[in-house]
Amino acid sequence: SGGHYRPPHCLPRSKSAILVAYKNQEKNLHHLLYYIHPFLQRQQLGYRIYLIQQTGKGSFNKAKLLNVGVREALKDEDWDCLLLHDVSLVPENDHNLYVCDEYYPKHMASAMDKFQY
């Protein structure tokens, strides 16, 4: 779908920008993208995934990359929700809705397999 999706038969539940910053993690990136597209589509979201790659030999600066990603995403659309996603975390449960709370930030990965949940 080229990194974006809009439900064909209904209005999207939310318009979400998914921002993924990475450096030298192509294997994790392919794994995430393989699983996250159907996951988000089952939630009937309108979304676009922004991949922000750091090149060069310097230290990975995830915060700076995500700031750049937010700036670029806001040029494209008035998003309902901005999700700052870790390239190595794949959602496992469809009940973890990728929508924003009206008033508060929301941490999407409250439990992780590598920590035995």
Automatic annotation (TrEMBL):
<protein>
    <submittedName>
        <fullName>B4GT3 galactosyltransferase</fullName>
    </submittedName>
</protein>
<dbReference type="Pfam" id="PF13733">
    <property type="entry name" value="Glyco_transf_7N"/>
</dbReference>
<keyword id="KW-0328">Glycosyltransferase</keyword>
<dbReference type="GO" id="GO:0008378">
    <property type="term" value="F:galactosyltransferase activity"/>
</dbReference>
<keyword id="KW-0808">Transferase</keyword>
<dbReference type="InterPro" id="IPR027995">
    <property type="entry name" value="Galactosyl_T_N"/>
</dbReference>
<feature type="domain" description="Galactosyltransferase N-terminal">
    <location>
        <begin position="2"/>
        <end position="101"/>
    </location>
</feature>
<dbReference type="GO" id="GO:0005794">
    <property type="term" value="C:Golgi apparatus"/>
</dbReference>
<dbReference type="InterPro" id="IPR029044">
    <property type="entry name" value="Nucleotide-diphossugar_trans"/>
</dbReference>
<dbReference type="InterPro" id="IPR003859">
    <property type="entry name" value="Galactosyl_T"/>
</dbReference>
<dbReference type="GO" id="GO:0005975">
    <property type="term" value="P:carbohydrate metabolic process"/>
</dbReference>
